[in-house]
Amino acid sequence: MAEWRPDVLGDEFEQLALELGEDDEGPVSATLVRSLPPEQSWWDQVRGHRRPLEDVDVLYIHGWSDYFFQKRLARFWTTRGARFFALDLRKYGRSLRDGQTPGYIADLATYDEDIEAALAAMGRGADGAASSRRLVLFGHSTGGLVLSLWASRHPATVDAVILNSPWLEFQVASVRPLIATVAELQARWAPREVAPQVDLGFYTRAQQEVADPDDPVEVNPLWRPAQSMAIHAGWFHAILTGHAAVAAGLTIDAPVCVLLSTRSARPTRWSDDLTRADSVLVVDDIARAALKLGPSVTVERIEGALHDVFLSRHEAREEAYARLGRWVGGWSSDH
Predict the structure, then answer these.
(1) Helix (H, G, I), strand (E, B), or coil: what is residue 127?
(2) Contact of 234 with 191, CB cutoff 8 Å
(3) pLDDT tens per residue across span 121-158
(4) Cα dihedral: 72, 77, 82, 86 (round 10)
(5) 335 by DSSP, 3-state: which?
(6) What angle do CA 289, 291, 292 make, to 5 degrees?
(7) Which among 112, 129, 51 has a CA at the least distance from the CA of 83?
(8) Does the structure show a pLDDT above 60 at 271?
(9) Contacts of 139 (CB under 8 A, 6+ apart)
(10) Average pLDDT over residues 62-81
(11) Phi-psi region of 317 (alpha: psi -120 to 50; beta: other; left: phi over 0)
């Protein structure tokens, strides 16, 4: 049986390999990273002080061409008493093996195996329900799409869903139904056909431009390349199928919080404007799509935020954490 071992992020973090069988490229695994809340001081224990999220488990999933590396995001939860877990999905980051196609999947529902293995390792049972602890799902970009679909298919399992710029709709929403038919044919006959690279690396540059020495972030470029990983036809079809499901309406029965930038910018050429906007998604379309996730959705729009709102310039990043703290505080007191 696999055991928890030290993680690349340092002393606060451990990782666990989750073996998931094999596919046509060989053995497949996911990696669960955890950070546990620090012990309370003896004085707080004597006073019976209880942190607000001591009965909460958080499961975070990264976006496309990404992996988990955000130490501060984990500490946001652990300092409030929660147990924080992050999942590097199969063929991403810590889970990527030689000979595998990075990030490739032909059906987003396949990630159910990754999620259920993570929940079981968290002591919650495969469906996440076998625990008295509250469960918060936290997803960024593609991870937000994956978790939204999973939460909708697993009612009465999740207590809250938090989404950081979730990829809920294609960048040109009006043409999605038209290209979906072509994507389906390509996925059927040539699933690993590669689309032309359109990422010029400007999103990565924007993050570097707004880096804060007082809140440093270290990224492994092999796991999070400056230009996104190659896009294959089978994966693209899986994403469009997920977008169509959101457009038709999901049924997430837990409260949902969506954090987004106030505006988008096209990354066709470099400009300083790209350091103050989402250069990946059309945020107004995402805001509209978010309202189809379930009956209780809060949309937080953050001025000057990047696609990953928690990697934005100082002012926007602090505002993102403040908004998250306010929403979580309200949710926790009501539940």
Answers:
(1) coil
(2) yes
(3) 999 987 777 788 999 999 999 999 999 999 999 999 99
(4) -60
(5) coil
(6) 70
(7) 51
(8) yes
(9) 60, 61, 145, 146, 147, 148, 161, 162, 163, 164, 166
(10) 97
(11) alpha
Average pLDDT, the chain: 93
Distance CA 144, CA 164 (A): 7
d(CA 284, CA 209): 25
Q: Mention every residue, 6+ apart, whose C-beta is less than 8 A from residue 331.
A: 160, 255, 257
Q: Look up tokens 């499901």; give the residue.
A: 245
Q: 300 by DSSP, 3-state: which?
A: strand
pLDDT of residue 48: 58
Q: How many CB atoms lie within 10 A of CB 222?
A: 10
Return the structure tokens found at 281.
Answer: 């998604």
Question: Does position 230 have pLDDT exceeding 90, yes or no?
Answer: yes
Q: Hey, what are 240's tokens?
A: 């469009």
In the structure encoding, which two tokens stand for residue 170, read together? 């294609």
Rounded Cα distance between 258 and 233, Å, is 28
- Show the DSSP H helices in 107-175 as ranges: 111-121, 142-153
Single-letter amino acid code for the residue at 320: A
Amino acid at 248: A
Which of these, 91, 71, 90, 93, lies nearest to 223 by C-alpha position?
Answer: 93
User: For every residue of 220-249, which 3-state class applies, written as one string?
Assistant: CCCCCCCCCCCCEHHHHHHHHHHHHHHHHC
Residue type at 187?
A
Residues facing 297 on adjacent strands: 256
CA distance 35 to 122: 12
Tokens representing residue 190 in the block: 């040539």
pLDDT of residue 214: 87
Count of C-beta atoms within a 10 Å radius of residue 329? 13
Torsion of CA 31, 80, 313, 208, to 10 degrees: -30
